[in-house]
């Protein structure tokens, strides 16, 4: 069952930056782009490399291990939408960032 979990405060995630967090047992990466906060799984499906050391370009993140890029909005690998990382819905309330974790 899905539930909302507070993952960070609004001030923890700066514009154009990423913050690794855990929501329960789920390792996530929170990223703020153009004021919007995205939450993606902090793991590349290629070889389980953490995405937190990756490079942000527009609305995508490039894996630091093998340069695979994933769209922050959909989780899709830019070269093939058949490969994805999990993305999570976020909400900002009372200065806290919550993530809908399944």
From TrEMBL:
Cofactor(s) the record lists: [2Fe-2S] cluster
Domain of life the protein comes from: Archaea
Question: What molecular functions are annotated in GO for this chain?
Answer: 2 iron, 2 sulfur cluster binding; metal ion binding
Q: Does the keyword Iron-sulfur apply?
A: yes
UniProt entry keywords in alphabetical sequence: 2Fe-2S, Iron, Iron-sulfur, Metal-binding
Q: Where is the Rieske domain?
A: 5-99
PROSITE patterns, per the entry: RIESKE
Q: Is the keyword Metal-binding assigned to this protein?
A: yes
Q: What protein am I looking at?
A: Rieske (2Fe-2S) protein
Its source organism is Methanolobus sediminis
